[in-house]
Structure prediction request, 271 residues.
Amino acid sequence: MALHLTAEISMSNDDLILNTRRGYSLVARKSEGKAPWVVFLGGFRSDMKGTKAQYLSRWCEKKGHSFLRFDYSGHGASGGRFEEGTIGQWTQDALEVIDAFCEGPCILVGSSMGGWIMLRVALALGKRVHGLLGIAAAPDFTRDLISKDLSTEQQAGLEREGRITVTSEHDPDGYILTQLFIQDGAACCLLDAPLDITVPVRLLQGCEDSEVPWQTALRLSECLQATDVRVQLLKDGDHRLSRPEQLTLISDTLADLIQTVESASATAASD
Prediction:
C-alpha cells in the first residue's frame, strides 16, 4: 500500500510536508541512518517539539538510527482543526506519514495517547513493525478515563451541544472535547480482547501518573499475544517521564529493544 501516491510531498527548511487528500497538511521531521526506523508517536495535544520527541531525535542521530517524528492534524505545525480530530483520523495520519517518509522495518515509540496510536498502527502494518515501546501508554483513554471523569453537567452539555470545553487546574484555558471524539474513541478501543501483536514490547509507566493509572500498563501487557513483554514501573514517575534520569531510561530501553530486534532479524536471516 502506497498511501503517499495520492498526496503531495514538499519541504520547508527541515520540515517535510505531506498534503493529504483530506484537506490538511501533515508536518514531519526525519533523520536517516540505519534500520530499523524509530517512529515517535506523540500524545494528546502534544507535538514533535516536545521534550521526549526531541531527546529521542538527538539520541537516534547520535547513534546512527533512522528517526521519524510528526504532528497529527490539529497539533503543532500540522494543518487541520484539533476539535475535528479523532483517534481514527490520527491513526490514519500516522499511517500516511510512515508510508510517505520511511521504508522498511520500524520500531514504534508511543507516548500517552501515542501508545494507543502505536498499537493501532502496529495492527495495521503487521510484519513491518518489529518492536514497540510505550511510555505511559494510554489505550482506550477516551472511554476509560475522559468519559468517566465527566460530570453529569458536562455529559449533558456534550449530548446537547456536541462539544464542551474541558478545563483543569493545570489548564485553565482548556480544550474542546467533542461527541465525535468520544464516539470514535469507543469504536477504536482495544483492551477488551487479545491483541494480535507478537513483537517485543516494552512499557514504561510511572506509579505517580495522575493521567494514566499504572494498572493500564499491566492490563495492556495481558492483552498482548507477544511473550517478550516487559513492564517497568517507576515508583516516583509522573505522566511526562521527562526528567533527565527518566529520559536516559527511555533511551536505554530503546537501545535494548533495538538490540533485541536486530538479534532476532539476524537469527531469522541465518535460518
Remarks:
- Residues 151 and 241 are 29 Å apart (CA to CA).
- The longest helix spans residues 244-270.
- The radius of gyration is 18 Å.
